[in-house]
Amino acid sequence: MTRLSRRYRPPAPGGARVRALLALLTLCALLLPGPPARADTPLDLDTGGRITDTVGALGRRRAQVISALDKLHSTHRIQLYVTYVRDFSGRSGHDWADATADRNGLGPRDVLLAVATHRQQYAVSAAGDSGFRRAQLDAVAATAIAPAVSQHDWAGAAIGAADGYGSVLRGEPVRPPAISPGDSDPGGGLVPRHRAVWLPVAVAAAVCLTVLCLCSRRAARRRADRRARRAAARAARTGRVDRIDGINGTVRIDRTAVGTSTEPGLTRMVQPLTPLPALEAEAARALVGTDDAVRTSAEELLFATAQLGGAATRPFAEAVGYAKGELADAFRLRQRLDDAPYEDPELRRRVLDEICSHCTSANRRLDAESEAFDRLRGLRANAAGVLAHAEAAARALAPRVDTAEAALTALTGCCAGTALSAFARHPAEARDRLAFATAGLAEARRTLEAGDADGAVVSLRAAEAALSQARTLTTAALRRAHELTGTAARLRAAVLDAEAGLAAARSGPTSAEGARRAATAGRVLTEVRRDMAGGRYDPRAVLRRVEEAAASLDAEAVRAGGSRADERRARRRVERAVLAARGEVAAARDFVSTHRGAVGCRARTRLAEAERHLARARRLPADEGKEILSATGHADSLARQARALAEHDVTDYLTGTGTGRPAAYDPEAPRPARALGGALLGGVIMAGLLPATFGGGATRGRLAGGTET
C-alpha cells in the first residue's frame, strides 16, 4: 500500500467538527454503492456458489433460488448458474452469456441463465451436448423465464428456469411461475433504498462520529500539553509568562512567541497496481501451477478410463481438453512476450493479466469437476480392485525397464554420446519411480487389510502417479532407441536424395548463387560421409545437416523449374521432417512431465509452442510442403530449446544452485532416498508429501484435507 498524506494549515475554530464531517462523508461514499457500472465481458462468476448477483436483484429471495438450483442438481445432475447484471455491455444477450460460460469453463452439464435487469433482457447458454434440445430450451425460456423477467420478478426467473428444466427432463410440460414483482431496476440508482444498506451506514456513521469526537478531544489535550511544555521551556529561558491557566495547568504566552502546528490531516490509502516484475512472477507461477494441474489430471484420467471405460469418463476428458486449450492460449501469449517484448508497460500488463485469466479459467473448470471425478472413481470403495490392477501393472513394467536399458546400451557402440546422454538416466529414474510405486502399493495393501481405507487411498494414488511416470520414462527410452535406429536408416536415404539433387544442380545451367549453394552442399555431404564411415555419430544431428543442405538445393531447383524427381525428393524430405519433429517434441514432453517438480516456466512455454507448430504441420494438406517444413522446423527447434532449458532447471534442482538449500534428489543416494527424491522431482507428491490428484489449483491437493469418497 502507498500512503498519501496532506498537511493542513493551523486549524480554524470548529476545525475538528469540519474534519469529523468530512470523514463521515468519506465513509458514506465508501459504503454506498457508486453509479452503476457496465458489466465486464465476460464476467467472472462467483466462486462461492452458483449465483452471481452484481445488482442486488434477489434481495431476501436468494434462499428460494438456491433451493430451486439445489433441487435441479440433486434430481437431474444439472448445474444451473444464474447471474444478474445491469446490462450486457452492448453485446447481444446470447453472445454475452456464451462468452461468460466459456470464460468460466462451464461444462456440458452446466447451464447459464444471464439476466440484464436495466433493459429486462435475458439469455441462456447451454452446450450443444448438454442433453437439452433447442425446442426444450425455448419452451422453458418462453414459459418460465420471459414472463418473470418482463414483470421484474428476478428471483422468479431463476426459480422458473430450474423448475422448467426439471420438467422437460421428466417429460412433463413447463409450468409458468407464480409472479412476485420486485424492484424494476435494481442497482440502477445512486442511492439505495433497502434498509439492509442504510442500517449499516447509519451505525457506521454513529460510530465514526463518536470515535472522531473522542479522538478530537484527546488530540486537543495533547496539543495543549505540547504548547504548555514549549511555553514553560521558553519561560525558563526568557522569564516571560503571561499567565497560568488554573483550570488545566497550561501556560499562556504571547502568540507571537510560539508558532503552532498540527498533525497531518486526513490520510487516504490507495491500492497501487501490482509492479510489473511481481506480475511477471505471478504469471510464471500461474503457468507452472496450471500446467502441473493439467498434467496430473490427464494422468489420473487415464487410470479412470482404464478402470471405468471412455463413456463414463467423457465429461472429465472434456474438462481436461478445455483446460489444455486455455493453458495453450496462456502459453501462446507468454511466447509472444518472449519473442517480441512490448515496450509499453500497460500493454505488457494487459497480456500478463490475460495469461493469469486463462490459467484461472483452466483451473476453475478442473476444480468444478473434481468432486464428481472422486465420486466416479470411488477409490475408497473400490480400493481393493484398483490396488490389484496397479500391482499387476507394476509387475509388468519391471522387465520393460530392463528392455529399455538394454536397447540404449546396444546403441553405445554406433551412436555418439550426445545422441544418448539425455536418455541415459531414464532407466535408472524409471526404477526409482517404480520402487516408490511398489512401496506405496505395499503400504496401501497393509492399511487396507488393517481397515484404514483412507490411508490406503493416499498410498494408492501416490503409487499410481509414480507408475505413470515410470512408464513414461521407460517408453521414452525405448522410443529414443527405436528413433535412432530408424534415423540411421532414413539418413542413408536422405544422403542419396541430397546427392541426386546435387548432381542435378551441377549438370544443368545455374546462377552464381546456385553454384555457391551446390558447393556448400557438396562440402556438407562429404563431411557427412566421413562421419558415417568413422563409426560413432549422432544420426539426428547429421540428418539435420543433410536436410539443411538439401533444402538449399531444393530452393534453387524451384527457381530453375524443378523436375518431377525434385518433387519426389522434396516430398520424402517433408515426411522425414515430420518424423524428426515428432520425436523431438515427444522427448521434450516426456522429460518435462517426469521432472515437473523442477522445470520452470520458460521450458514449458517453449514446449507448448513446439506442440502448437507440430499440430499445425499435421493439419496442413500434403501439397503444402513448404509450410509443413516451416512448421516442423519451428517445432523441432523449440522442442530442443525446451529440453535444454528443462535440463538446466533439473541440474539446478539436483545441485541446489540458487536455492540456498541442499538438493532434494541425489541420484547417487541409496534406493529408498532416491525413490522419495525422484517422486518430489517428478511432482508425484507435493511439498506436504501427499499426492496430487485430478483437479485445478484449489482441489488437486485435497487429499491433504480428507480422502476421496
- With strands numbered from the N-terminus, the spatial order across the biggest sheet is 2-3-4-5
- Could you list the spans in which at least 5 consecutive residues all have pLDDT below 50? 1-14, 30-40, 190-198, 235-271, 659-663
Strand pairing plus helix content: what structural class?
mainly alpha
Main sheet? 4 strands, mixed
Shape: globular
How many beta-strand segments? 8
Count of alpha and pi helical runs: 19
Characterize the structure shown:
With 709 residues, the chain is mainly alpha-helical. Helices cover 65% and strands 5% of the residues. It has 19 helices and 8 strands. It has a 4-stranded mixed beta sheet with strand order 2-3-4-5. Helix 4 packs antiparallel against helix 5 (154-170) and helix 13 (453-507) runs antiparallel to helix 16. The protein is globular, with a radius of gyration of 35 Å.
How is this fold's topology laid out?
Layout: E1 2-5, H1 15-31, E2 51-53, H2 62-76, E3 79-85, H3 93-103, E4 110-116, E5 121-126, H4 134-150, H5 154-170, H6 195-238, E6 243-244, E7 251-252, E8 267-270, H7 276-308, H8 314-339, H9 345-377, H10 383-410, H11 417-420, H12 426-449, H13 453-507, H14 512-533, H15 539-559, H16 564-594, H17 601-619, H18 625-655, H19 671-681
Parallel strand pairs: 2-3, 3-4
Antiparallel strand pairs: 1-8, 4-5, 6-7
Helix pairs in contact: 1-6, 2-5, 4-5, 7-8, 7-9, 8-9, 8-17, 10-12, 10-13, 12-13, 12-19, 13-14, 13-15, 13-16, 14-15, 15-16, 16-17, 16-18, 17-18
